[in-house]
Amino acid sequence: QAHLIESGGGLLQAGGSLRLSCAKSGRTFSGYTMGWFRQAPGKEREFVAEISWSDDVPIYTDSVKGRFSISRDYARDMVYLQMNSLQPEDTAVYYCAARWPTKPEYDYWGQGTQVTVSS
Fold first, then answer.
1. What is the pLDDT of residue 6?
2. How open is the CA angle 47-36-76, to the nearest 5 degrees?
3. Which residue has the higher pLDDT, 25 or 118?
């Protein structure tokens, strides 16, 4: 069974930085587009960023542009989300996900990692 395992979440003050990691278990995700989503308390899960396998071009939601950076290590089959200038509104559970490039929906999800930003 394929698994995505997030790590790197934590509690920090506004203005700080964190790097989230997504490791793969059970299978490789070669060829897959990898994404990060988040869900804040009382809100629906929202898209944060994604990066394709083929062209490595990242896509971000507007609220994180210029602050977050998604990257992938092909050799280690890892995906990262570097988050800078964090704000209280970034507080959420962050999820790693994978989808086949020709499909719009994400098929594989991790369990999530909590990020809490205090003011």
1. 96
2. 160
3. 118
